[in-house]
């Protein structure tokens, strides 16, 4: 009985955490979030790899949804300038010559 309860609790916990197909691949819910907010998938993937590491830490799908929304808003505010938008996403403001943006850019260009 105790093992059944633990198994059910574990299954419920895992249901809210997306599985990653590969080290640099986004889970399906992240792809859906990026697409639904009109965010370029390669840019979003690079940003998430910078944010979550590679291999990525497990995070709930709600994280990807919120991240895609914030990135889309940043892109809109920066008139599509992806690197200013990434700086705004990461820092809450534009920082010229930001090493964090440079890391995202390197990941993006390596795709």
UniProtKB/TrEMBL annotation:
Record's keyword annotation contains Signal: yes
Annotated keywords: Signal
Signal peptide: 1-21
Name of the protein in question: DUF3718 domain-containing protein
